[in-house]
Amino acid sequence: MKAGKVRPIALVIFRSEDQIFVTEYFDTVKQQVFYRPLGGKIEFGEQASETVVREVDEEIGQAISVTRSLGVLESLFSFNGQKGHEIILLFEGTFADPQMYAVDTMKGVEGSRKMFTVKWLPLEFFRQGKSPLYPEGLIELLDSQ
To answer: Is the pTM above the cut of 0.85?
Structure first.
């Protein structure tokens, strides 16, 4: 995150029954685990739908199809003590490999070395407030679809 900059990003939602596939993060300042869908920064000249295809391939090595746009959310947040501001284009997608819907948890890579965990979690987990799902407003958006 660059201080004082608005960052355009694209995220993709994968569903399996009442579960979604999310990345697990830990905020060291808040001492809190939270979750967010896969995706990332929209590169100059790249369509947002292309961003999620590229990001999923880079991060977990999976081919996907984008099925539809879900909407746009704006997020003002703090992560590890740094303030952030993102405009998020949200998409729904499907994995090309049907075996991805049977995977409970897997590892992903951000950049060349930073490992992270991705897992299927029930929407009810977030509705009950067991852990935050970001960006804020995402659970309500998904429930309205």
So the answer is: yes
